[in-house]
Amino acid sequence: MDPLDDFMTTRPPTARRPLLGVTVLVVEDSRFACEALRLLCLRSGARIRRADTLEHARKHLGVYRPTVLIVDVGLPDGSGLDLIATCAKAIPRIDVILGTSGDSILQEAVLACGANGFMPKPISSLAAFQSAILSHLPTNRQPPGPRLVTDESVNPDLIAYQDDLTHMAAVIGSGDARESLGYVTQFLQGIAQSVKDDDLGNAASAVARKYRQGTSTEADLIALGAMVNSRLDTNRPL
Length: 238
Hints:
Blueprint: H1 3-10, E1 23-27, H2 31-44, E2 47-51, H3 54-63, E3 68-72, E4 74-75, E5 78-79, H4 80-89, E6 96-101, H5 107-112, E7 117-120, H6 126-134, H7 158-173, H8 181-194, H9 198-213, H10 218-234
Parallel strand pairs: 1-2, 1-3, 3-6, 6-7
Antiparallel strand pairs: 4-5
Helix pairs in contact: 7-8, 7-10, 8-9, 9-10
């Protein structure tokens, strides 16, 4: 462990940095969402590690046990629900397991898999982020005295949003995109909500409903791809 790691994991929590000593493993493939969580951890005193696939997450978990596990439900190599269910049953159990998604209909499934809580995207409120974790941490991990609660929110660099759009354009343009439509719609709902792009978010939600009903078509995928590419062509998020 390097000196910074040692410093971050051994200092006791404080009112201003209530998550000092906490290590958070974020399993998230959106760069924009992950940057938001990085900023939230930084302001809270937590140390963050990131995995962008289930495979990478399992490699991380094979080496160390984080204090907190935050798992996006929609991942490129499968459902985050599988990882949540596995970790919820593991002994010793990770202290706090949270699921996240841009599709709030998945909250029930996340909790049914054994997660402590669900965080809908976008995740930007510092107070809500800290509360979601602290409410499930053991007493010895709690900061002494009253916690300083603010209405601060984080604003990740929009370059990360452009990177996410580029990733989606590549996925949609690939030959097997039709088979991964559930992943595509969850991803787009999450990033659209993060930047308040209602048109893209509503379109992704509509296709997600059709996908769950088994009525989605190739035309739906083409339309989503056109919306993503139009945003990339204008080089702006909205």
